[in-house]
Amino acid sequence: MLYSLLTSLVDTFSFLNVFKYITFRIGLAVVTSLIIIFLIGNPLIKYFSRKQITGPIRQDGPIDHIIKKSGTPTMGGLMILIGIITSTLMWADLQNIYIWIVLFVCTGLGLLGFVDDYLKIKFKNSTGINAKLKLFGQLLISLLAIIVLVFFTDHESISNLYFPFFKNIVLNLGIFFIPFGIFVIIGSSNAVNLTDGLDGLATVPVMLVALSFSLICYLVGNTIFSNYLQIQYIPNVGELSIFCGSVVGSCLGFLWYNAPPAKIFMGDTGSLSLGGSIASVAIIVKHEIVLAIIGGLFVLETVSVIIQVISFKLTGKRVFMMAPIHHHFEKKGWAESTVVIRFWIIAIILALVGLATLKLR
Q1: Which domain covers residue 202, as residue numbers?
Q2: Peptide bond into 179 cis (omega under 30)
Q3: Is residue 336 part of a domain?
Q4: d(Cα 132, Cα 139) in Å, to the nearest integer?
Q5: How far, in whole angstroms, is CA 212 from its chain's centroid?
Q6: Measured in whole angstroms, how far is the alpha carbon of residue 348 from the centre of its chain?
Q7: 334 in a domain, yes or no?
Q8: Which residues, other chains included, contact 231 with Cβ-Cβ below 8 Å and sequence gap of 6+?
Q9: Is 331 a member of any domain?
Q10: CA pair distance 121, 89, nearest whole angstrom
Q11: Average pLDDT for consecutive 10-residue bins of the chain (361 residues)?
């Protein structure tokens, strides 16, 4: 909104030309979303506390969680969504269809998570929406986004799958891109959701992934940099850097309240929307495999749950003391802050490895 207004006045006020630069608007998006979170954070937390909007704690989890975390407000993802959506609408070019696709995924999955959180609070259990119904909602949102991306954009290489470290290996998925794209969005959405189990654990890795993809979007959407790095140039995707910047600012602001000991939890409202929307960005800029590297911590958490379930069903034994794997280390005696910080370190390393793939080709 502000972007269109300010750029329309460039002929009258030449200094407003600075708003045409994506890098400048990325900074504005980060700062704007950060300020929004700071403005609404405390009032929202106080309101949620007064209304007893608190999520149930897993009874099979560490005893320390049941004692310390009971009564902590949830649905903090609502403030993250407000920050992301408002900042993106202010500073992004709203004529860019990719912005609307990503905002649709972010909002749609956020609403699905909101309903899930609401049912958990209302019935005071950790079940929420029926698993099959929840998956159907994710499937529908993902399918609509992918259909628009395939049939209503000029994205010529949308069905291609590019492999990091190899500049000449490209796999055209054809019609199979649709189920692949759906899988990436749903998988990423649930992966972030599984990781969101300790104070601040998911927030920083999401911020790192968003920061990395803000750079990737800018490079992929720039002919000079994409040619230099020998990566696929995709017109108009640089605008998605604004969305990623909004995610970074919102998560940074949310971390102020979510850092141990958390004053509020993200809930499914935040985790589902963050995971799914970042996945949609990765799909548009054709860096799906790089997403799995940069977001490797989320992959690790998901794989630990899959291994645990398969092992228990086949042998009746558990590989981990508790899944997802962050709870396993808690059960082994690691302090919550130790688990969180060490997992953050892993996330930083994986982000650096993922970014290195841009040059190592």
Answers
A1: 2-288
A2: no
A3: no
A4: 10
A5: 12
A6: 16
A7: no
A8: 162, 167, 219, 220, 358, 361
A9: no
A10: 31
A11: 79 83 96 97 92 69 59 90 97 96 98 93 80 95 97 92 86 95 97 92 97 97 93 95 98 94 92 97 97 97 96 92 92 92 97 92 68
